[in-house]
């Protein structure tokens, strides 16, 4: 039995190490490509052992450091506020749908599920947000459309509240005279922390990586660009300079490390997520120990 256990542990550790490497190596390749000399990158291609290193791409981006800092500020603000509102609305809706005796529960569940299958389309949504809600060229354009509430998150949270939190806990709270709001605050939120953190991670990633809202609704107020919009604009500008036919622009474009800059932009965009995500890992395992009724 000990030999089998050791063999299983060795195999499991090998598989996990291999899987970890497969996850980490692409990020390492992006970083190495961002500090590789442009000529070396074009000739040699992407490599874990570049022949010549260069920080030209970072120097080029640092020339717009003020703009990048402002774009990071917009991304942090939008991601923080948007994720908080998303979780508030999603948890309230999910808890309401998890209540067994809620009047009209089936009808509301149908409407939530229906939005997962069908939507009005890009053009009608654009017209509504632009001409009715007037969010064009405002910070609301980065917050409200598409990301404020997710039907998928609501369904997952409702399922968790229904299956992972025993009915006995709800019944005990009701016998103690707790109201629905008290049960939500004192029971559902503490016991539902794993799914709330998980859904918050999804919502935060969606807000951080979103660039379509800025593309559609931010036209003149480029100071409201988030980091994704700004980096996308920088990539477009670099591609324009590289492909320009004018001899003056072409001569200037030769010194622009276009390929390395794209890797630098990708690394800058994902770096905050890589630093913040491990901080929430501890919450994912808490669901294993939650939900038991003590006699």
Structure, explained:
It is built from 16 helices and no strands. By secondary structure, it is mostly helical. It has 2 domains: 2-44; 56-288, MetI-like fold (Orthogonal Bundle). Helix 3 crosses helix 15 (258-276), helix 4 runs antiparallel to helix 11 (193-209) and helix 13 packs antiparallel against helix 15 (258-276). The chain is flat, with a radius of gyration of 25 Å. 21% of the residues are buried.
Number of helices: 16
Largest sheet: none
Element string (H = helix, E = strand): HHHHHHHHHHHHHHHH
- Helix/sheet category: mainly alpha
Number of strands: 0
Give the fraction of residues assigned to helices.
Answer: over 70%
Architecture of the largest domain, CATH level 2?
Orthogonal Bundle
Residue runs with pLDDT of under 50 for 5 or more positions: 249-254, 287-295
What is the CATH class designation of the largest domain? Mainly Alpha
- In the CATH scheme, what's the topology name of the largest domain? MetI-like fold
Keywords:
single chain; MetI-like fold; 2 domains; flat
Secondary structure layout plus pairing:
Elements: H1 2-34, H2 38-44, H3 56-62, H4 65-98, H5 105-117, H6 122-132, H7 140-143, H8 151-163, H9 167-175, H10 180-191, H11 193-209, H12 212-217, H13 227-243, H14 247-253, H15 258-276, H16 281-284
Short description:
With 295 residues, the chain is mainly alpha-helical. The protein is 72% helix and 0% strand. The protein has 2 domains: 2-44; 56-288, Orthogonal Bundle (MetI-like fold), CATH 1.10.3720.10.
């Amino acid at each position: 039995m000990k030999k089998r256990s050791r063999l299983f542990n060795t195999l499991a550790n090998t598989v996990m190490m291999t899987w970890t490497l497969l996850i980490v190596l692409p990020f390492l390749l992006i970083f190495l490509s961002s500090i590789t000399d442009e000529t070396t990158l074009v000739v040699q291609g992407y490599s874990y052992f570049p022949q010549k290193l260069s920080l030209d791409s970072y120097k080029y981006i640092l020339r717009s450091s003020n703009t990048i800092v402002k774009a990071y500020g917009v991304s942090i603000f939008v991601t923080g506020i948007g994720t908080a509102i998303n979780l508030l609305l999603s948890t309230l809706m999910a808890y309401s749908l998890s209540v067994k005796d809620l009047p009209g529960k089936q009808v509301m569940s149908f409407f939530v599920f229906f939005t997962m299958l069908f939507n009005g389309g890009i053009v009608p949504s654009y017209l509504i947000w632009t001409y009715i809600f007037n969010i064009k060229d405002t910070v609301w354009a980065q917050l409200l459309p598409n990301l404020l509430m997710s039907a998928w998150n609501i369904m997952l949270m409702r399922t968790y509240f229904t299956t992972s939190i025993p009915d006995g806990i709800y019944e005990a709270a009701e016998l103690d005279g707790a109201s629905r709001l008290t049960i939500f605050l004192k029971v559902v939120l503490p016991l539902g922390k794993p799914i709330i953190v998980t859904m918050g991670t999804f919502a935060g990633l969606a807000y951080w990586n979103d660039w379509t809202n800025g593309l559609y609704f931010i036209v003149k107020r480029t100071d409201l660009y988030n980091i994704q919009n700004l980096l996308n604009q920088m990539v477009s500008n670099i591609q324009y300079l590289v492909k320009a036919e004018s001899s003056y622009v072409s001569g200037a474009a030769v010194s622009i490390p276009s390929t390395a800059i794209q890797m630098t932009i990708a690394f800058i965009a994902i770096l905050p997520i890589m630093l913040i995500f491990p901080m929430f890992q501890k919450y994912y395992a808490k669901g294993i120990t939650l939900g038991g009724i003590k006699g």
